Amino acid sequence: MTHLLTRSLTRSNEATPPRVVSPRGLATIAAGTLLAWFAVFTLPIQPAFGFDQFAPPPVTAEATEACQVTDRSHVPFDRWLGQFTTRHEEQSSVDGTRATQYYAVTYNKVTKADRKKLQQYIAKLTSTPPHGCARDAQMVYWINLYNALTLDIVLEEVPVESIRDIGSWPNAGPLVGPWQEDATKVDGVTLSLNNIEHDILRPLFKDHRIHFAVNCASYSCPTLLDRAWHAKTLEADLQEAERQYLFSPRGITTKPADDGAVYVSSIFSWYQADFANNEGALRQYFAERLESSPTRQQWVTTRTIEYDYDWRLNNKAFDVR
Which terminal residue of the chain has fewer beta carbons within 10 Å of its beta carbon, N or C? Predict the structure, then answer.
């Protein structure tokens, strides 16, 4: 999950000659950097135009003969994730009776041959757009493609502390991440990770649980699974992913020294509109899904909400290598 600069900030292909910057110029650059960071963490991402060719069919529509993507297409990603993720249990500080699962990625165990297998899976997907496939198969296609591309991008840079250490945009400063960079091409359309998430998945499929499926390679992001997503289990998997995140310390938690606040993942701030119209409705969203935990339910409905996010790479919290 990423919350990034607006699409007007694009990388220039033109070389910039060196220049001497005056104090006033330095102040202007500093102000521009601050504005860029403000955009990163506060401005909603607006879906761009031109991606309607990837619009999914109605929920009731069945696959046509044009569909070349099935659950079997994702078996190589099943194997890859099963080999390079390790399962850990998290104990929530809000409700200590519940444990949730987190799958850390063992990046340092991935050999060149292993990475090539991941890239071959990506290449096969991108060469077979999901046209003619049923809605669930199309959603799974984009989720798996996003997650596989993210893994490959990180593998190109490891060792790295955070995915935000990768990539840069003019005047945006360091730690901006790779999400706006061209990542792949599908059906002749060049796509970034942002395009897949914010121009295809969110606006075209309109399911808030997408945020629990795409993985930004950071600890606070909803966890990867130890397998690919599949159309036949999509609904059940989305429900479980939502439940796991809301009961995990990455989704909702408190600080060891109780300060009277409940700490909620910044995902619910960045993309609040995908979950609720306002904070009151967001609290109701939490309450309805936390009925089995009166402690959590009380805290998210009565306490001050503070938003928090841990950008460490999704192997750092458990010291996995």
Answer: C
